[in-house]
Each structure stands twice: as C-alpha cells, then as structure tokens.
Specification:
This protein is an all-alpha fold. It has one domain. Helices cover about 75% and strands about 0% of the residues. The chain is built from ten helices and no strands. The longest helix is centred in the N-terminal third of the chain and has 32 residues.
C-alpha cells in the first residue's frame, strides 16, 4: 500500500506541475457553477426578452448527467496525459518493475483517479444539481460514470503514442458520451443502435428511473474495459 501511495503521489505531483492538467482538474467545478447558475439565468433571459417557453427546464436532468460524467472524464483525461508522458520518458516501464509492479501502477493511474472522481461527482451533484436526485440513483450514476471514465482513459492511452495524439483521441472519445443524448431525443427503438455505449444505459437509468439498466451499463463498460485493456497491455510489454 505504501508503494501505491508513493506512486499516486508522484502522479499528483506531475499534475500540479502541468498548468494545463491543473486547469483540467479545476474545470468540473467551473462547469458545475455554470450549469447550476448559468443555465437558469440564460433561460430566464430567453423567456424575458424573446417570449420563448421555458424549454431548457425539460432538460435539466440532461445537464445534471453531463455534470456527473464530465468530472470523471476530465480527471481520467489528466491521468491519460500523465501515462502518455511517462510512456514517452520510459518511466512506465521502470515503475512496472519497482515494488509498485504493473498492477500497482495501473491502480495508481486508473483506479485511484476514478475513485476520487466518484466522490467529486457526488459532491458536485449534491451541491449544484438542477434536479432532485434520489441518493441511491446519485451514487449509482456517479459510480457508472467513474467506471465509464476508465474506459475513455484506456481508449486514449491505447490508441495514442504521445500527448499530442492523446489530446486528439480524447476529443474523439467524447463521441462515446453521445449516448447521453439519445433517450432524451430519440423515442423509437432506433435508440438501441447505441446500446454498445455505456453512456446510453446511464442516460436510460436516469431518464426512466429503472434500476435494471444498471446491469447493461455495467456489462457494456466491462466489455469495453476488457477489449481496451488487452490492447493497452500489449503496449506496455
């Protein structure tokens, strides 16, 4: 455990020395403030000056979902950039043969950031959500979002060779969050074309308040994790 903490401390130090990654870790709080206070203000302006109906209120839950998933996504983006930097400098191979070991290295770079992002998501949703969240649903969504963020992080590091490629792939990986929109705008069975995306099932869980959707959300996440981890493991060898 001591070696894990040391490895994670090294990870935190690298983030603190990188102004971009430092800003990325603060961004979820800024986004939460905008969603909580900016969206209702913009809606009030639209209603006041353009006599438009309060249509944004129908999508407050969707904004909350983006808030819940944005936090782990940005945390794990920072983790991906650190991993790619360490790979460029051949540090990942060195750390894998230290007492930390390969598994310990992966835990300190993927699992720990995901755990922190889980608690951060719960805190931000508790303080800044636009809708009322049952406690169990909040915990379930934040856990699934954190698991999904590990998928996105593995996607970035598996298909990138350096930080420049990593930033490009991370932008493309954002497409996997498109599933959040589907249940809110597509009401026919066509929506199940997006069933391979964990984000789709997370949105279905919130939209329908049916806890059975936790199962496909978990299954699709673990399926992606298995596929991407095998590719990443080959990269580490």
């Amino acid at each position: 455990m001591t070696s894990l903490i040391r490895s994670f401390t090294m990870f935190i130090r690298q983030i603190s020395r990188d102004s971009m990654l430092y800003a990325v870790c603060i961004a979820p709080l800024l986004a939460a403030l905008f969603f909580r206070f900016g969206i209702p203000y913009i809606e009030a302006l639209l209603c006041r000056y353009f006599s438009l109906p309060a249509i944004l209120a129908d999508y407050y839950l969707l904004f909350d979902l983006f808030m819940a998933i944005l936090t782990p996504f940005l945390f794990c983006f920072a983790s991906s950039m650190v991993i790619l930097t360490e790979s460029d400098e051949n540090m990942s191979g060195y750390l894998a043969v230290t007492p930390v070991g390969r598994k310990g290295y992966l835990v300190s770079r993927f699992v720990f950031p995901a755990l922190i992002s889980f608690f951060a998501s719960v805190l931000l949703l508790s303080l800044f959500s636009l809708t009322e969240w049952p406690r169990f649903l909040m915990f379930a969504v934040c856990f699934l979002a954190s698991l999904f963020s590990v998928v996105l992080s593995l996607l970035v590091v598996s298909f990138s060779h350096n930080r420049v490629e990593g930033m490009a792939v991370s932008k493309l990986s954002g497409i996997m969050m498109f599933g959040l929109l589907v249940p809110f705008f597509i009401f026919s069975d066509i929506q199940y074309l997006f069933a391979v995306l964990p984000s789709f099932w997370i949105a279905k869980l919130c939209y329908g308040r049916d806890y059975l959707f936790i199962l496909p959300a978990l299954l699709t996440s673990f399926l992606w994790l298995g596929i991407l981890y095998r590719r990443f493991e080959k990269k580490l060898i």
